[in-house]
Design brief:
It is a single chain. The protein is of the alpha/beta class. Among the domains are: about 240 residues, MetI-like (MetI-like fold, Orthogonal Bundle), CATH 1.10.3720.10; about 55 residues, no CATH class; about 80 residues, no CATH class. It is about 50% helix and about 15% strand. The protein contains 24 helices and twelve strands. The protein starts with a helix and ends with a helix.
C-alpha cells in the first residue's frame, strides 16, 4: 500500500496507467462500444468507399466501406493481445536466462551472455520479417516470433540486477541457514528483481505493439484479423492517400502512438519507483575441494579446529592467497577474538572455515574439523544440515544481511523451517517472537520490516537469527559496526550473556582490542593472511611477543596511563599480489633484521595454546622446548 501511495503521486505514472487502462477497456468491451461489427459480411456500394466522417460513421469508412471507428476499436484487441503475449514470452525467456547468468556467474554466465549478445546484434525487425514470411502470417506465429526475438534486453537487465542482489549479505545468510539455490532464487533474489522486470515488461509491450504494427504495415500481418497496423497497410496500399481519405490514415496511427506513449510513461514511472539499490554476495562454487589426508584433533574439548587453512582468490590468471596456513583451535564454550587491521584475512578465514566464500574464492588447502567432521571434505548437501544448527554467523552490517522485503520474524522463521520441516510457518513465527524477546525485542515487532528497526535493534535481530537453531558456535563479524558507543556496549553485553547462558562458543571478528579484552578468553592476532600471535587475553595483552601485537597495543589508549602517547603503525598491510618473501610485517616492523626480509618465520609455541610467528622469540621458544 505504501508503494501504491507513492506511485499515485507520480503524474507520469498515473497518466500512463490511465491511458493504458482506457485502451484495455476499449479492447475488452469492443462488441459493446463499436457501432458496427467489422467482421460481419457486408455489401458496400461505390458511395460507401472512403466515405467522409458523418453521423453514421464518425470516423468515416475505409476502402471496403467498413466503419473506421469500429475497426479501430476491434483493432485494439489484436494489437494488445500481441503486445501482452509477446511481452510475456520475452519476460519468461529473458528473465530465466538473466537470473541463471547473474546468479551462477562463471562460465555458465559468460556463455549465456555471449548467446544473448549474439541475438542482440541481429536486427530484430529484419529477422522478424524473414521468419514470419517463411512460417506464415498467423497471429500465433507473429506473437511467438516477436516474443522469442525480443528477450535480449530483458536478459541483460535481469542479469545486471541479479548480480547486485546476490552481493547482498541476506543472500549469503539464506545460504548459510541451509537454503538451496532454487529456494534462494525464488524467495530472496526474485522478489528483489521482479519490480524492475515489471517496469521493463511494460516497455517491452510497447515494442511488441510497434513490431506487430510494422509487420502488418508491410503486409505480413494476419490477413484474417483487424489490427491498427493492418488498417494502415490497407489505407496506404489501397489509395487512401490519393483519395485524400485522411480519416483512414490518422486514427490507426494515433491509436498506436497513444498506447506506446501510455506504456512508455507507465514503464518509466515504474522503473523510477522500483529501481532498487542492491548488491551481491554469491557463494563459492558448489564443488567441494579435495580433502587432505588427516584425522581430527584428539582433544575432546575442541569444537572447531582449523588446520593450515589456505584460502585463495582467482584474480585474472593469478591465484592470490588471502589466508595462508591459518591454524586456530576453538574450544567448547570459549570466546576467541580475531583482531588485526582491515585486509588481514580475519573474515576470509572464517568464511573459508564455514565454506561461505564469495565467487572466485576457494579453499586451496588445509582442514577444518568441527566436532570430529572435516568441513572441507563435505559436499554442499552434506554441509546444509550443519549450517545454523551446528554453527551460524552474525554478518557485518545488519541492514545488508536482512532481506528488506521480508519481515524480521519471517526471516528468523525461515531459518527454523529450513532445518525442521515439521514445524509449521505459524509455529516458526511464534518461536521467532520468543527469540526476539531473548535479545530484548518485543515479540510484537516480529511483523516489522528491517527498515522499521533502529541500528541496534537490527543487530539484536541478527543475533536472534543466528541463535534460531541453537548452534554450538556463533561467528560474529564486526557486530558493532556503525553503532554508537552505548549500543555497542549493549550488543557486546548481550553476546556475552547469551554465550554464558547457552554455553556456546563465540568467534568475534573485530578491530576493537578493548572489546576483545572484555569479552573473549583468547586472542588471535592476524596480519597479511597469517596468524602472527595467539594466546590467552592475559598473555597477549600483558606480554605481547610479536612486534605487530606490540604496536597494536601501543596504538590503543590506556585509561590507567592517560598521558601515554599513542603510537601509529606506519604503512598499510600488504596487497595480496605484493606479499613480501619473508615475514609479512617486516616492511613495517621497526625491529626487523635481514633474516626477516628473506625467510618466513614459523609459529613458535611458547606455551599451551600460546605461539608467536617472529624470529625474535626463537630463543624463548628454544628455552621452552628444551625445558
Amino acid at each position: 500500500m505504501k508503494g501504491f501511495d507513492r506511485f499515485r503521486h507520480s503524474k507520469m505514472g498515473m497518466t500512463g496507467a490511465i491511458m493504458l487502462l482506457l485502451a484495455v477497456l476499449v479492447a475488452v468491451f469492443a462488441p459493446l462500444l463499436a457501432p458496427y461489427d467489422p467482421y460481419a459480411p457486408s455489401s458496400p456500394t461505390i458511395e460507401d468507399i472512403y466515405d467522409s466522417p458523418s453521423s453514421a460513421h464518425l470516423l468515416g469508412t475505409d476502402d471496403g466501406g467498413e466503419d473506421v471507428l469500429s475497426g479501430l476499436i476491434y483493432g485494439a484487441r489484436v494489437s494488445l493481445i500481441v503486445g501482452f503475449s509477446a511481452a510475456f514470452i520475452s519476460l519468461f525467456i529473458g528473465g530465466l536466462i538473466g537470473l541463471v547468468a547473474g546468479y551462477r556467474g562463471g562460465r555458465i554466465g559468460n556463455l549465456l551472455m555471449r548467446f544473448t549478445d549474439f541475438f542482440l546484434v541481429i536486427p530484430d525487425l529484419a529477422l522478424q520479417i524473414v521468419i514470419v514470411a517463411i512460417i506464415g502470417q498467423s497471429l500465433r506465429n507473429i506473437i511467438i516470433v516477436i516474443g522469442v526475438l525480443g528477450w535480449t534486453t530483458t536478459a541483460r537487465l535481469v542479469r545486471a540486477q541479479t548480480l547486485t542482489v546476490r552481493e547482498r549479505k541476506f543472500v549469503l545468510r539464506a545460504r548459510a541457514v541451509g537454503g538451496s539455490d532454487f529456494y534462494i532464487l525464488r524467495r530472496h533474489v526474485l522478489p528483489q528483481v521482479v519490480p524492475l522486470m515489471l517496469a521493463n515488461t511494460v516497455l517491452v509491450i510497447s515494442l511488441a505493439i510497434l513490431s506487430e504494427s510494422t509487420l502488418a504495415f508491410i503486409g505480413l500481418g494476419d490477413p484474417t484479423l483487424i489490427s491498427w497496423g493492418q488498417m494502415l497497410n490497407f489505407a496506404f496500399s489501397r489509395g487512401a492517400v490519393s483519395a485524400g481519405a485522411w480519416w483512414a490514415l490518422i486514427p490507426p496511427g494515433v491509436a498506436i502512438v497513444f498506447v506506446v506513449l501510455a506504456t512508455t510513461l507507465l514503464g518509466n514511472a515504474l522503473e523510477e519507483q522500483f529501481n532498487p539499490r542492491l548488491g551481491r554476495h554469491y557463494l563459492e562454487k558448489e564443488v567441494p575441494p579435495t580433502p587432505e589426508p588427516g584425522s581430527p584433533p584428539a582433544q575432546p574439548e575442541v569444537l572447531m579446529s582449523i588446520r593450515d587453512l589456505k584460502v585463495s582468490f582467482e584474480v585474472g590468471q593469478a591465484q592470490l592467497m588471502a589466508a595462508d596456513g591459518v591454524s586456530i583451535d576453538i574450544h567448547r564454550g570459549e570466546a576467541v577474538g580475531l583482531v588485526g587491521e582491515s585486509g588481514c584475512g580475519k573474515t576470509t578465514t572464517m568464511l573459508g572455515a564455514l565454506r561461505l566464500l564469495p565467487p572466485g574464492g576457494s579453499i586451496a588447502g588445509g582442514q577444518v574439523w568441527f566436532d570430529g567432521c572435516d568441513l572441507v571434505a563435505l559436499t554442499p548437501d552434506e554441509l546444509r544440515p550443519l549450517r545454523w544448527r551446528q554453527f551460524s554467523m552474525v554478518f557485518q552490517g545488519a541492514m545488508n544481511a536482512l532481506n528488506p522485503v521480508k519481515t524480521v520474524g519471517w526471516q528468523i522463521a525461515e531459518a527454523i523451517r529450513q532445518h525442521d520441516s515439521q514445524v509449521s510457518q505459524d509455529e516458526a513465527e511464534v518461536q521467532a517472537g520468543r527469540l526476539l524477546e531473548t535479545v530484548g525485542i518485543g515479540h510484537e515487532r516480529a511483523g516489522d520490516y528491517p527498515h522499521e528497526f533502529s541500528g541496534g535493534m537490527r543487530q539484536r535481530a541478527m543475533i536472534a537469527l543466528a541463535l534460531a537453531c541453537g548452534p554450538g558456535l556463533v561467528v560474529a563479524d564486526e557486530p558493532t559496526t556503525a553503532l554508537d558507543v552505548m549500543i555497542q556496549a549493549q550488543i557486546m553485553d548481550l553476546l556475552a550473556s547469551l554465550r554464558a547462558e547457552l554455553n556456546m562458543s563465540l568467534v568475534l571478528i573485530t578491530h576493537d582490542l578493548g572489546v576483545v579484552a572484555e569479552t573473549c578468553d583468547r586472542a588471535v592476532v592476524m596480519y597479511g593472511g597469517v596468524v602472527v600471535e595467539q594466546g590467552t587475553i592475559a598473555e597477549v595483552f600483558r606480554d605481547p611477543q610479536h612486534p605487530y601485537t606490540q604496536l597494536l597495543l601501543a596504538a590503543f589508549p590506556d585509561i590507567d596511563q592517560p598521558e601515554r602517547l599513542l603510537v601509529s603503525i606506519p604503512g598499510t598491510p600488504p596487497r595480496l599480489d605484493e606479499i613480501p618473501p619473508g615475514c609479512r610485517f617486516a616492511p613495517r616492523c621497526p625491529q626487523a633484521f635481514d633474516r626477516c626480509h628473506t625467510e618466513r618465520p614459523p609459529c613458535y609455541p611458547l606455551g599451551p595454546r600460546r605461539e608467536s610467528a617472529c624470529f625474535l622469540v626463537e630463543r624463548t621458544w628454544q628455552g621452552v622446548s628444551s625445558g
